[in-house]
Specification:
single chain; mainly alpha; 72% helix; globular
């Protein structure tokens, strides 16, 4: 298992805050430098987090959102990946598939 240093993840979270503040300051169109910064941040997050398949899917969505100019939504989705790692939730809990769980859903 590869361990990630908490300060590295905390630094990602801090950088996310800086980028979100820059996005929030924009009234009209985002400047091209901001697109470049967000794209670089997505790449940096992917490099540090070493995503599992679920996170890789989220990162693909984040990239599409950023390419479509939806930087704020892209950053919020990216924050989900960072927060999951900060909270130690690398994998999602499995869906209940025991007979008891199926009975509970039917009631």
């Amino acid at each position: 298992m590869v361990w990630r240093f908490p300060e590295t993840l905390n630094q990602l979270a801090d950088r996310w805050t800086v980028l979100m503040n820059q996005v929030n300051r924009q009234i009209d169109l985002y400047p091209s430098e901001l697109y470049v910064d967000v794209r670089a941040f997505i790449d940096e997050t992917e490099r540090i987090v070493k995503p599992d398949p679920f996170e890789q899917d989220v990162l693909r969505t984040v990239r599409r959102l950023a390419e479509d100019g939806k930087l704020k939504i892209a950053l919020f989705r990216l924050r989900e990946v960072i927060d999951d790692r900060l909270e130690g939730r690398r994998h999602r809990p499995p869906i209940e598939s025991t007979p008891d769980a199926r009975v509970k859903r039917c009631l």
